[in-house]
Write a structure and sequence with these properties.
222 residues, alpha+beta, 4-stranded mixed beta sheet, 11 strands, disordered N terminus
Length: 222
């Protein structure tokens, strides 16, 4: 048996004292991922969080910490050295539909992966928000208040493909560009508020859908 599974019966169990863990199991360099996860769990407890493991559908989220009516979602990965790992660790968090902090903890260092709002334009019935990272990569989010019965139209460039998909169970239209460096997009309508959203980015289909599923409406006094 390896790592924490020596004390695991259908659930995850962690050591409060890592020294005891190393005495019982012994330290192995291959256990660094398990040790990092255990350390994150202990730190959340130290900070006063009530910690549990969460799921979005069948996708596991390592930790959900709750304190004072606030919440934080955390994924732990020793290395993010492949596209599949990145999609798993970041994608699971992007699918959570709220605005609480979502964090990936890893030994790897990244630059240019944090997007910040850099531009916003809004009118009575429409708006556009641009998010940019340090490398100049952009995510564009547009919204439009739709009148009843109005149907959207789409204009395709050469090589674009248009397919039906879903965003959080809502029918959506995905347009994927075949040209490297061109934007792909997904458009869907929140029927409760009659707002149509379009999210565009230079990214794979799965990433664009995951980003779209993280969009949520909130009340604002601004």
């Amino acid at each position: 048996m390896i790592g924490k599974r020596i004390f695991e019966i259908g659930e995850k169990y962690y050591f409060e004292n890592m020294g005891v863990r190393n005495i019982v199991i012994g330290y192995r360099i291959t256990d660094k991922g398990k040790i990092l996860e255990n350390l994150v769990y202990n730190h959340l407890l130290y900070k006063g969080y009530n910690v549990r493991i969460g799921y979005y559908g069948e996708k596991e989220i390592d930790f959900i910490g709750e304190k004072n009516n606030e919440r934080v979602y955390i994924q732990v990965a020793l290395k993010i050295d492949s596209k599949q790992t990145a999609e798993k660790e970041f994608g699971n968090l992007l699918k959570v539909q709220d605005n609480y902090p979502k964090i990936v903890i890893t030994e790897d260092t990244f630059e240019g992966n944090t997007y910040a709002e850099t531009e916003r334009a809004a009118s009575y019935a429409a708006g556009d928000v641009k998010y940019t990272n340090a490398d100049g990569d952009m995510i564009l989010l547009s919204y439009l208040y739709m009148s009843d019965g109005v149907v959207s139209g789409f204009e395709l460039d050469n090589g674009d493909t248009m397919t039906d998909t879903q965003v959080n169970g809502i029918p959506a239209t995905l347009i994927v560009s075949s040209m490297e460096g061109n934007f792909s997009s997904v458009t869907w309508r929140d029927t409760a508020s009659n707002i149509e959203f379009t999210l565009a980015a230079v990214a794979d289909e799965s990433v664009i859908i995951a980003m779209a599923e993280s969009v949520s409406l909130c009340n604002s006094t601004n």
